[in-house]
Write a structure and sequence with these properties.
Number of strands: 12
Helix content: 10-25%
Low-confidence stretches: none
Shape: globular
Largest sheet: 7 strands, antiparallel
Number of helices: 2
Number of domains: 1
CATH architecture: Sandwich
Distance between the termini: 19 Å
Mean pLDDT: 93
Strand order of the largest sheet: 8-5-10-3-2-1-12
CATH superfamily: Jelly Rolls
Strand content: over 45%
Order of helices and strands: HEEEEEEEEEEEEH
């Protein structure tokens, strides 16, 4: 992945960001799909666009993420009777509004990933990302069979949809300006 998505190529994309169809997730994440198979993506992070802590969640795909610029902490969570209590929501992508919930005790281990570093995440592993503003990551997704997804939160009222929306022109400008400061 690092050969095809070099820092120079990502820099060029960011310099012309308004020419691309960016998508926004309300966790402070702006993403750009790089292919029709949804295998490769660029993420630009700005946690100031997120309300509260990032959600603990899993994915519908395994992935490898490389930090192109900036730094993030990836925290992985496992069930642990001595862990903190969370409300666990389960749902399918097609029917997110029909989610159900219970509770789970979770504990975390964290790793800091600096520029040039990468981490791998299996689809069913729970995690949360804590990026510095302007961090840019590139992902390679490996899609599997559709399955139930999980989000764990401290309280039920902090639920946010995981669905992406079209990024506004202003969001594209703000996010890419912060990212370009890291190049």
């Amino acid at each position: 992945m690092s050969e095809t998505l070099s820092k120079a190529l990502v820099f060029t994309i960011l310099r012309h960001a308004e020419d691309f169809p960016w998508r926004m997730q309300d966790i402070g994440l702006m993403g750009l799909r790089l292919d029709d198979q949804r295998e490769h993506r660029i993420h630009v992070w700005d946690p100031s666009y997120s309300e509260g802590d990032p959600p603990i969640h899993d994915h519908p795909y395994d992935f490898t993420s490389i930090v192109i610029a900036g730094e993030l902490t990836n925290s992985r969570y496992v069930e642990d009777p001595a862990g903190d209590e969370y409300i666990r929501f389960r749902y399918s992508l097609a029917t997110e509004d029909q989610r159900w919930s219970d509770t789970a005790q979770l504990s975390a281990t964290s790793e800091s990933v600096a520029e040039g570093g990468e981490y791998h995440q299996l689809a069913d592993e729970l995690h949360a990302s804590w990026p510095l503003p302007g961090t840019v990551t590139a992902m390679r997704c490996s899609w599997g069979e559709p399955r139930e997804l999980t989000v764990c939160l401290r309280d039920e009222s902090s639920w946010r949809s995981g669905q992406a929306r079209t990024a506004t022109r202003e969001e594209v400008k703000v996010f890419t300006a912060k990212a370009l400061e890291r190049f």
